[in-house]
Amino acid sequence: MSRKKEVQIQIEVSNEEQWKEALLAPGLLVVDVYQRWCGPCKAVQNIFRKCKTEYGDDLLRFAVAEADDILELSSLKGKCLPVCLFYSGGKLLSIVRGVNGPLLQKTILELVDVEKKKQQLGSKYVPEVQELFLDDNHQEGIKSPSSQNVDIDIDDHGTYCVVIIKPDAVAGGQVEAIRKKALDAGYSIVAEEERVLDKDLIHTLYEEKAEQPEFVKSMSSGPVHTLILSKRDKVREEESPLTAITDLELAELIQPKKRSNYVQEVDMGLSDCSIEMDSRQLAFFFPTLNVTSDTQAGSISEIQKTLALIRPSLLRKRKDEILKTIHDFGFQIAMQREITLTDEQAKEFYKDHDGTDYFPGLINQMTSGPLLALALTREDAVLHWRGLLGPKVVDEAKEKSPESLRAQFAIDNVAINQLHGSSTPEEAQRDLNKFFPTEHTLAVIKPDYTQELRDSIINRIKEAGFSISQVTEKKLTRDMAEEFYKDHVGKYFYNHLVDYMSRGPSVMMILSKENAITEWREMMGPTDPEQAKQGSPNCLRAQFAKSILENVVHGSSNVQHAMDNIMLIFGDIPKQTLLKKEK
Ligand SMILES: Nc1ncnc2c1ncn2[C@@H]1O[C@H](COP(=O)(O)OP(=O)(O)OP(=O)(O)O)[C@@H](O)[C@H]1O
């Protein structure tokens, strides 16, 4: 059976030589910059193909380039994907982030027009197109037309403005007019997208207004269209036409009388950003746009934890890729656990979806093998992760948000999306408790400790967020010490170990926290203090242990070990007692 072969529309650029060659060829060059983990964007290719057919000629060329391969593109690594760059005569003229068909087509059309005029009028034609550059933070700057060598630094002087066009205005066909007004006013559109907000998200994004049913109803009645606009203060200093425009004036331009009915403008002044909502909205609508912490006033961004689930099919097929992607987007994995859910557990987790047509398929997916539960942390983790996931329905994700993770990591012939994320911080807490329930471990401060050392270790334990559910000071008998370290019977240090552990009182504690066993072992550090000093100088053994034998602290190695030794020291204590904290 022969498959129809599609004509290759983009040239592949994979080294500096090819890059220079592509830049210097005549006409407009549109480059789709991608990263290895996701590959070139298929949706963008389709748009390019359409443009080539409609207005393409020799003046329109397309290329794909991997951000890692070309120095000039390296600032795009791990950032907004896909990104399309538009070059003519080696100069960067425009940037479009995300798959935005209408904007890509419009930009191509406008710039092909410029190329045609250049060809017809030769040197008589002076195009009104500004040259841009990419700085280290993946922001474009405008090269001053009068002095091509002066770079304007957006980090020091730039301003973002997030414009959210509400559903009724989107439905009323206002988007194009608003975009045009913003562009005419001298703003550049850094990113834009359209998506439907569900009620949970409206609550998280607009806490204070979420109590108004009318507001929630209007915001969820259709897609909202969001734009991030940027401009530069230096341009203002140079008294260019942008001088007089403030964000408020922009809002007036956009919708002079009734603007609050249509748009909500949010000032993202990088130097004096003070509205918490800004970072939350930005995190959700543009999760891949990296407004770095020094540009996005650090104090407003809250470090949060959220639950991510990688469903079994994806985990089996592309575990490394999805973990790398999560890391590339700036998340830390605070805890992780592979678990195979029973039918009952999966149904309990998704009980709110019981009765829907997709429920049986969802439960089937969730129980088809081990899944990976992750506790992800970063600023505004809940909204960032949800923003990256994209639409819940895979077909919709592929069609409307092909760069979203649910589209990128969809599994062939599986209708259920492969990634879960909590919707709100409260739900994240509940979800995390389910997958990472409180664990108990036995911690021991071994004999010969001073009062000062004891207090300092207990302070460190509390600072790390453990609850000390039980504590006692006790001298182990020889028999108990032998039982405690029975796994080491026969080893050359066994007798010394038993002598050491039974020669004076130890502090015995039950520590409780999610992931307590692993986290306490991390705090203790490697068994041998010399090794600890090399690899983890802040751990307790690096700082306080005398030798590999007299290494200050003990911690259970696993759940069974913890249960056995808790029983040995504290007897059969009821579970509720474990949750009592030491005052
Ligand atoms: N090579 C060694 N020489 C001397 N003592 C050792 C040696 N290896 C282990 N020990 C002692 O035996 C204890 C138990 O060893 P194990 O291998 O279980 O290390 P651990 O799990 O890091 O420590 P612990 O069980 O005390 O938390 C160590 O804490 C240390 O006191």
Give a nutshell description of this structure:
By secondary structure, the chain is α+β, with helices and mostly antiparallel strands. The protein is built from 27 helices and 19 strands.
Number of domains: 4
- Report on the biggest sheet: 5 strands, mixed
Secondary structure tally: strands: 19
What is the mean pLDDT?
78
Q: The CATH topology of the largest domain is what?
A: Alpha-Beta Plaits
Query: What's the assembly state of these chains?
Result: single chain
Proportion of residues in extended strands: 15-25%
By CATH, the architecture of the largest domain is named 2-Layer Sandwich
- Estimate percent helicity: 25-40%
Reading side by side through the largest sheet, how are the strands ordered? 1-3-2-4-5
The CATH C-level class name of the largest domain = Alpha Beta
Uncertain runs are 1-6, 135-158, 232-277, 290-300
Which overall shape is indicated by the principal axes computed on the Cα atoms? elongated
Explain the layout of strands and helices.
Elements lengths: L9 E4 L2 H9 L3 E7 L7 H14 L4 E7 L16 E6 L2 E7 L3 H21 L9 E4 L5 E4 L10 H4 E8 L1 H5 L3 H10 L3 E9 L2 H7 L7 H7 L3 E10 H5 L9 H8 L4 H4 E7 L6 H10 L17 E8 L1 H17 L3 E8 L3 H7 L9 H8 L4 E9 L1 H9 L4 H7 L4 H4 L10 E3 L3 H11 L2 E8 L5 H13 L3 E8 L3 H7 L9 H8 L4 E9 L1 H9 L4 H7 L4 H5 L8 E3 L3 H12 L4 H5 L4
Parallel strand pairs: 1-3, 2-3
Antiparallel strand pairs: 2-4, 4-5, 6-7, 8-10, 8-11, 9-10, 12-14, 12-15, 13-14, 16-18, 16-19, 17-18
Helix pairs in contact: 2-3, 12-16
This protein binds adenosine-5'-triphosphate.
Adenosine-5'-triphosphate binds next to strand 19.
